[in-house]
Specification:
222 residues, alpha/beta, 4-stranded antiparallel sheet, 8 helices, elongated, binds calcium ion
């Protein structure tokens, strides 16, 4: 299943930030840019991200301090650093960054590192939870109050996609393309039927909202 990763870029040098955003968006990532550490911390409270690209020298709160804030959220971090010294690189990794990249860098290197970190992180992620649902990604099972729920493979993929992208507006086309791994032909029937069945089977009617004309959103709050 293709992941539609949501990346937070924390970098105060706007040309660098814009360049990263443009290139990641070309690859199908969703990007949000913030330009100081406090704004980043605020946004991390409000939204879910799959990856943070984090500059070290930032106004307000620096990257090292912000990293200690991000760690409990279990979001992988790649440091963007102008500091090429061994000591700085080791400090970042010791603090728990997944990787670092030294500025100036080639975009191809950035993309490669982003993909490696996301793959590694998702591979190590074995269990997802959403309220009373426990999703085991290895066994591909879903349980609710210790009862296993019988889902078809596509219903399972759909549920995982919603939970990984909870609280985000998901357009029909992107859901279809991520779960069916093929381009959406505009026929919404297949997707609607699967969502209808998923809602019934796992009892997430209250959380899985249909948004007029745009798509769906799985709300973590009721
Ligand atoms: Ca900086």
């Amino acid at each position: 299943m293709k992941a539609q990763a949501n990346v937070l870029i924390v970098e105060d040098e706007i040309p660098i930030s814009d360049l990263i955003k443009m290139n990641l968006e070309d690859e199908g990532f969703q990007c949000t840019c913030v330009y100081d550490g406090l704004a980043a911390a605020d946004l991390l409270e409000e939204q879910n991200f799959d990856l943070v690209l984090l500059d070290i020298m930032l106004p307000q709160v620096d990257g090292y301090e912000l990293l200690s804030y991000i760690k409990p959220l279990h979001i992988p971090v790649i440091f963007l650093t102008a500091k090429a010294s061994l000591e700085d690189r080791v400090k970042g990794l010791n603090l728990g960054a997944e990787d670092y990249i030294v500025k100036p860098f080639e975009i191809s290197e950035l993309l490669a590192r982003v993909n490696v970190v996301l793959r590694r992180f998702h591979k190590s992620e074995k269990i997802l939870a959403f309220h009373d649902l426990i999703i085991d990604l290895d066994k591909r099972t879903v349980t609710q109050n210790n009862t296993t729920i019988d889902l078809t493979p596509k219903e399972f993929d759909l549920l995982v996609y919603f939970v990984r992208n909870k609280d985000m507006v998901l357009h029909r086309d992107s859901i279809y393309e991520a779960v069916w791994e093929t381009e959406h032909d505009g026929n919404t029937r297949t997707l609607e039927l699967h969502i209808q069945r998923l809602r019934k089977k796992v009892g997430i009617e209250k959380h899985l909202k249909t948004l007029y004309k745009s798509g769906y959103r799985l709300d973590s709050k009721e």
